[in-house]
Automatic annotation (TrEMBL):
One of its GO terms (biological process) is UDP-D-xylose biosynthetic process. This is UDP-glucuronate decarboxylase. Residues 8-304 form the NAD(P)-binding domain. Its cofactor is NAD(+).
Length: 322
């Protein structure tokens, strides 16, 4: 039997980070989770604390990072991800995408580890091309409210590529499109959570703008499988991972009402500045290179997600502090 591989996962207590911890524990890796808990919750990973092959470091990755021992892989997932979060903590968002990524690339270089960084469909901004292929350079407003996230992620991609080119670090870049599933925070403001929370509290669903903007929602298990395959592939250019099944936000609201059996209505609120009008991944590369495509339909994924949120206490569902 070979030596157990060691992997550092940043953002481990968050939605995606915690699912990645589970996936790599399942694959018999030694997992080191790191998080400063700014938007994450320890309960997402508390089931791992009793395991010998899991360690947790409470640390801000924008500050110098020390990890003893060898590392084979690093997954950099630490960053606020919902517009509500990154508008509340814009400077930390810029720092974790820039300084945090720099620290992790330095660590990868020092440990001779392969590093995969979590980029986003937001690098395409408000796209003028639909679906978005990886070659599209994007349409981002650097000084608009979303710029703190979008530009941090664009810088993150640039410095990652530079470490690959100039230092020969083994890098991977995943561009993640809207992903959902259990362990998201009901009050983090992302549309699925807003709608499910509102339906469970028997409030009207808030549509921003006229609801004609589109998104394409990917179930978390599909995304995690795509990331697992990308990490183990030899592909160094950015790769889209997402579900191309595109839907308008109004249709999505109607789906949530039907799914929850709610008789509430959809009400329209002003559209936030620079809200992308359309978003749909072109996954030609993921299909050809990783043999990956999503397996879970929106209907199936939403049912699982709804069951998770229904299992939360009533107090948690009532609590909306954004
Ligand atoms: P999340 O908020 O649930 O998780 C992020 C985690 O990072 C949290 O646990 C938070 O406490 C931690 N964190 C933030 N700043 C940190 C710092 N400086 N040091 C240490 N830990 C820090 O968000 P998520 O949805 O799980 O997103 C994870 C990653 O995936 C992010 O990089 C995000 O940009 C990217 N992403 C997510 C989506 C999505 O749909 N969920 C889409 C595109 C990209
Ligand atoms: N949205 C909405 N109502 C809400 C929250 C969000 O209509 O209560 C819209 C938002 O304006 C955007 C889409 O839903 O067009 C997806 O928003 P989200 O914050 O989930 O993520 P984004 O894809 O914009 O980063």
């Amino acid at each position: 039997m070979g030596k157990q591989k060691r992997i550092l996962i940043t953002g481990a207590a968050g939605f995606l980070g915690s699912h990645l911890c589970d996936r790599f524990i399942l694959g018999d890796y030694h997992v080191i989770g790191m998080d400063n808990l700014i938007t994450g919750e320890l309960r997402n990973i508390e089931h791992l604390f009793k395991l010998e092959n899991f360690e947790f470091y409470h640390h801000d990755v924008s500050k110098f990072i020390f990890v003893p021992g060898e590392l084979d892989y690093i997954l950099h997932f630490a960053s606020p991800a919902s517009p509500i979060d990154y508008l509340k903590i814009p400077i930390q968002t810029l720092k974790v995408g820039s300084l945090g990524t720099h620290n992790l690339l330095g660590l990868a270089r020092a440990k001779n580890a392969r590093i995969l960084i979590a980029s986003t469909s937001e690098v395409y901004g408000d796209p003028s091309v639909n679906p978005q292929p990886e070659e599209y350079w994007g349409n981002v407003n650097p000084v608009g409210p979303r710029g703190v996230y979008d530009e941090a992620k664009r810088f993150q991609e640039a410095i990652t590529m530079a470490y690959h080119t100039f230092h020969g670090v083994e890098t991977r870049i995943v561009r993640i499109f809207n992903t959902y599933g259990p362990r998201m925070r009901l009050n983090d403001g992302r549309v699925l959570l807003a709608f499910i929370g509102q339906a469970l509290r028997e409030e009207p669903l808030t549509i921003f703008g006229d609801g004609s903007q589109t998104r394409s929602f990917c179930y978390v298990d599909d995304l995690i499988e795509g990331i697992y395959r990308l990490l183990h592939s030899s592909y160094v250019q950015p790769m889209n991972i997402g579900n191309p099944d595109e839907i308008t936000i109004r249709q999505f609201g109607e789906e949530i009402l039907k799914l929850t059996g709610s008789d509430q209505e959809l009400i329209c609120l002003p559209l936030p500045t620079d809200d992308p009008k359309q978003r749909r991944p072109d996954i030609t590369k993921a299909k050809a290179i990783l043999g990956w495509e999503p397996q879970v339909s929106r209907n199936e994924g939403l049912k699982i997600t709804l069951e998770y949120f229904k299992s939360l206490s009533k107090m948690e569902i009532e609590h909306k502090d954004f």
